[in-house]
Amino acid sequence: MSSSIAPDSIDLTTGESVIPQHEAGTNPRVLPIVAEVRAKVKQDLRLGREYQQGRINWITTIAMGAFHVGAVAALFFFSWQNLVAAVVMYFFAINVGIGMTYHRLLTHRGYRVPRWLEIVLTTCGTMALEGGPIFWVATHRVHHQNSDHEGDPHTPHDGTWWAHAGWIFSGRAMHSETALLGRYAPDLTRDRAHVWLSKYHWLPLTIAGFLQLGIGYAIGGWKGALGMMLWGTFLRTTLGLHSTWLVNSLVFFAILCSVMLAIFLSAKFPLRPSAPLYGLLVAALVAAYLIPQDAFLSIDFLPLRYALASIVAFLPVFLANLVFAGSFKGTGPSADVAFASNLIGIMLGGMLEYASLLIGYRHLLLIVIGFYVLSALLLRRRAPAAEMEADTRVPVAVT
User: Fold this and answer.
1) CA pseudo-torsion sign 343, 344, 348, 351
2) Residue 47 and residue 138: Cα distance in Å, rounded?
3) Rounded Cα distance, 214 and 226, in Å
């Protein structure tokens, strides 16, 4: 097979590549799937709610429903052995398979390991029931490319339920469409092992389930076999899925709560954009810049760790929305000006979000601090002019 495919070698009705007979077998080292990726490299991949056309993926929906039923049934088969099986499987499937491997290793290439170890770790990821490596990596890279914009597979703008789990149950399954997904995961489509694991991603989980049946039977007969499989596969997988989905929902929920709290306080109290409020906002941004992201990991008391991390992450959002909401209060005829100014700020913020991919999150904070300091200085310049205008007004007597 040649290293490239002519444009007329694509079946426009099916989207599948057609390999000319005279090119077949000329280069056995090139995988057929690589040729398809090269042929479809210009094909875009959009995964948002709009592009699913309201379709329900019944195979995924039925499978997820069955796993949730099995998770509930597992509660009637508790034993310490079953709990250990669930914890061990959760650790290897979610912590090692999804967190370490699918996300940090395969998607972002945050570190390197020997190829044999990469395949072993990837196999752990397939046992999370989140698809094969090519599907998972491509979907996550599309998410980063279109984050909270059109085409994002699980943006909260399409609804809270959609961001949590609805996007899983909708649209066509693309686990086997390696050629289309390959545009976003070309490094994986060139690897035979990753292609095989993507095609048969369900196999390691199935084998693990049968092993749990055997171990459980050896420990406690058929009841022990059923209980260990329910805990080690069904309950563990269901909890792992919701813990993964919760990342989208929880972050959006926290941001939404910060915004709603700011609007509520602005409506109840006479808050206006002022030097102290800007000072608090700049201080919160400086704290987010100075405090390393892993600063709280040494705190053993988990509620305190999560509370401090949440304050550092979401306090700037809350204070910024106080400034935003206060800019509309008492503006009178100039409310349209205030809205236009904030709209410009939103567009500028969107451009800075993309710039952060190049300069990094911490440098983005420095730019944001600069903008808010400039805004505070402009506010101070406007204040004397407004007071002077108020003093020059002549009261009109009403008779």
Assistant:
1) positive
2) 11
3) 10
pLDDT per position as a tens digit, 368-390: 888 888 888 877 766 555 444 44
Cα separation, 177 vs 171, in Å, equals: 13
3-state helix, strand, coil in the chain (%, to 5): 70, 0, 30
Q: What is the pTM of this model?
A: 0.56
Whether 131 and 175 have beta carbons less than 8 Å apart is answered as: yes
Contacts of 311 (CB under 8 A, 6+ apart): none
**Encoded amino acid at 257, one letter:** C
Two structure tokens written together for 342: 């904030």
* pLDDT tens per residue across span 218-255: 999 999 999 999 999 999 999 888 877 776 666 666 77
Delimit the domains of the chain by residue range: 45-245, 270-386
Higher-confidence position of 22 and 82: 82
**253: amino acid identity, one letter:** F
> Residue 142: how many CB atoms within 10 A of its CB?
21
Cα→Cα distances 356→30, 251, 329, 360, 366, Å: 37, 19, 32, 5, 11
pLDDT greater than 80 at residue 51: no
3 state SS of 170:
strand
Q: CB atoms < 10 A from the CB of 167, how many?
A: 23
Cβ proximity of 175 and 198 under 8 Å: yes
